[in-house]
């Protein structure tokens, strides 16, 4: 049985049957055409479908699909590169595809567009022969979408394969006069994000001419960073399995040997996957000298728990106790899981709106405010996020950041230390929040965050920028710190550190 659907014929499984007069075929003869999808490409297709249809996060879906299809290390690596590459390059690939399709891309069925993106990435940016990229993508389409769609995919990808990535990029940008628009196309970023990153470079003391290097770093597959929890973990097992000692953060390892969860120490939670930038800001907060009591620590927005685990391990070594707060029970559960390897007497997980700390009497010696933010500093690790965000998200986030900051100041004891951290270099989420907070809280004093980072880093970061006073002059001894993917090979972590004067 077959059924008519939207002008196309589909069989009982909902797959298209090609009965039109304009039929296209892959390079293989009919008898030789593959009818089954290659498992690695199928995994990538399933992840892209989950991302586009369900707003899923690729880094959460991909591991489950890899395990479900039982891919070996080589195929898992291929599937990972294909998935993340297609997501990072989506803007550029869609611009290419729009030149090769006879209708607006929004009129294509979403699964077909995902298959085309996978094919485009193989043809333009992977070491896959053109015939293999074509035949395998057509086979994937035939198996997962239908024969009718496979003809379209074959015809479009043949047009894509007629030029190299460099040739396509040149054709797409040759008539574009606006520098930001040209960079957005060439580096596959939304224009508003390119502008925001340029502003971030300027606001944090770097040249805007670094924008090309920053955008390129956003598109480079990041190496997995791991950290051994102080007093609990050991990096030797990771080093023995081909890892390389990190050059920026203590007890860190760079690992590209496949799924790190297969490493015993990682499975046990004593060695954790965590970006080196996140490691440094947590260590920096814990290392700032204090006068007086140093027993009560607070992680105000602790989920999913990476910084909390590192702070908890450091607190355990010092006889302190960490209170890790999260707003929702499911995120609190993630934090508890992250802290499971840390001695229980060193931490407690609580659930509630972090703004309530401004209304309570509890005072803390050290506070980590890793505030909810746009995440523009982690685009290389969350490639789909660049296509989901919008400029209108920023005002709502900065309002929340401001409220949480006020709560953190209210919960800080005089002489205590507060770290304000975001995974974003956007000035509205970094320097503007800092300056507003200093103007609202006369007893709040900004410290030298760059010096705090460098005190725990294995090499100088060169990450600092001065904090301007009310008249624009630099405040003596007050500096913020901003890490960058193209400079430090970390996420673009921002940190400012404060103390509260009596």
Automatic annotation (TrEMBL):
Q: Which GO terms describe its biological process?
A: regulation of DNA-templated transcription; RNA methylation
Q: Name one GO molecular function term.
A: RNA binding
Q: Which residues cross the membrane?
A: none
Please give the residue ranges the record annotates as the region Disordered: 1-33
- The active site is formed by 423 (nucleophile)
**Is this entry keyworded Methyltransferase?**
yes
Domain (SAM-dependent MTase RsmB/NOP-type): residue spans on this chain: 199-501
UniProt xrefs under PANTHER family: NOP2 YEAST -RELATED NOL1/NOP2/FMU SUN DOMAIN-CONTAINING, RIBOSOMAL RNA SMALL SUBUNIT METHYLTRANSFERASE B-RELATED
Similarity field:
Belongs to the class I-like SAM-binding methyltransferase superfamily. RsmB/NOP family.
Q: What is this protein called?
A: 16S rRNA (Cytosine967-C5)-methyltransferase
- This protein's species is Zhihengliuella halotolerans
């Amino acid at each position: 049985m077959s059924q008519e659907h939207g002008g196309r014929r589909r069989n009982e499984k909902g797959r298209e049957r090609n009965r039109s007069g304009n039929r296209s075929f892959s390079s293989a003869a009919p008898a030789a055409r593959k009818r089954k999808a290659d498992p690695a490409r199928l995994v990538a297709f399933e992840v892209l479908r989950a991302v586009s249809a369900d707003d899923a996060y690729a880094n959460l879906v991909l591991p489950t699909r890899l395990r479900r299809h039982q891919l070996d290390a080589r195929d898992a690596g291929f599937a990972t590169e294909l998935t993340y590459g297609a997501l990072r390059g989506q803007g550029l690939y869609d611009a290419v595809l729009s030149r090769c399709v006879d209708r607006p891309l929004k009129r294509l069925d979403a699964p077909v567009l995902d298959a085309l993106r996978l094919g485009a990435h193989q043809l333009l940016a992977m070491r896959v022969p053109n015939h293999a990229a074509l035949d395998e993508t057509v086979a994937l389409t035939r198996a997962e979408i239908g024969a009718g769609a496979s003809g379209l995919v074959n015809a479009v990808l043949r047009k894509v394969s007629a030029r190299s990535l460099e040739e396509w990029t040149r054709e797409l940008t040759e008539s574009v006069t606006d520098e930001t628009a040209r960079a957005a196309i060439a580096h596959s970023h939304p224009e508003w994000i390119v502008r925001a990153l340029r502003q971030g470079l300027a606001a944090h003391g770097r040249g805007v001419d670094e924008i090309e290097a920053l955008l390129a770093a956003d598109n480079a597959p990041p190496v997995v960073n791991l950290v051994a929890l102080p007093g609990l973990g050991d990096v030797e097992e990771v080093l023995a399995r081909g890892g390389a000692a990190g050059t920026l953060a203590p007890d860190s390892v760079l690992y590209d040997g496949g799924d790190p969860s297969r490493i015993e120490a990682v499975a046990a939670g004593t060695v954790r996957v965590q970006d080196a930038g996140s490691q440094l800001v947590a260590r920096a907060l814990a290392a700032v000298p204090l006068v007086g009591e140093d027993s009560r620590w607070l992680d105000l927005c602790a989920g999913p728990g990476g910084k909390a685990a590192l702070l908890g391990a450091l607190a355990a070594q010092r006889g302190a106790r960490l209170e890790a707060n999260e707003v929702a029970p499911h995120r609190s559960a993630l934090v508890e899981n992250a802290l499971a390897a840390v001695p229980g007497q060193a931490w407690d997980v609580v659930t509630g709106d972090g703004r309530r700390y401004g209304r309570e009497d509890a005072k803390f010696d050290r506070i980590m405010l890793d505030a909810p933010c746009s995440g523009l500093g982690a685009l290389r690790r969350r490639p789909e996020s660049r296509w989901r965000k919008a400029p209108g998200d920023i005002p709502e986030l900065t309002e929340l950041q401001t409220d949480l900051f006020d709560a953190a100041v209210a919960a800080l004891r005089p002489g205590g230390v507060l770290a304000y951290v975001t995974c974003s270099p956007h000035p509205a989420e970094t320097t503007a929040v800092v300056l507003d907070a200093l103007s609202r809280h006369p007893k709040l004093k900004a410290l030298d965050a760059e010096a705090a980072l460098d005190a725990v880093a294995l090499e100088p970061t060169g990450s600092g920028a001065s904090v301007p006073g009310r008249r624009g002059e630099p405040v003596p001894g007050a500096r913020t710190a901003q890490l960058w993917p193209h400079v430090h090979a970390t996420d673009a972590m921002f940190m400012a550190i404060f103390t509260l004067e009596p």
